[in-house]
Amino acid sequence: MEIANSVDPVQDGRIHIEKINWPFLSEFKGSPAEYSAGLKLAIERGWLWMHESGTYVKITDAGAALFALISSQNAAVLVDSFSAQLPM
Length: 88
Known about the structure:
Mean pLDDT: 81
Number of domains: 1
Number of helices: 4
Radius of gyration: 16 Å
Order of helices and strands: HEHHEEH
Distance between the termini: 40 Å
Helix content: 55-70%
Low-confidence stretches: none
């Protein structure tokens, strides 16, 4: 999901599958089994939708909401961490 979220979608929000699988396998050194399991999980949880041809996916509203939640939680953690370091 992180890789899919980092890719600029093309026409109609499409993310070509090779934009996800190549970084996962080459840069992150994931195995094909891990890639397949992660993709399947993201689809089952409704975060990604895959076209029947298997050539592209789209991030669903649920997937976008997941990243909005993660971003807001990360922002809160950063603010808390920064505030804890300020002199009183």
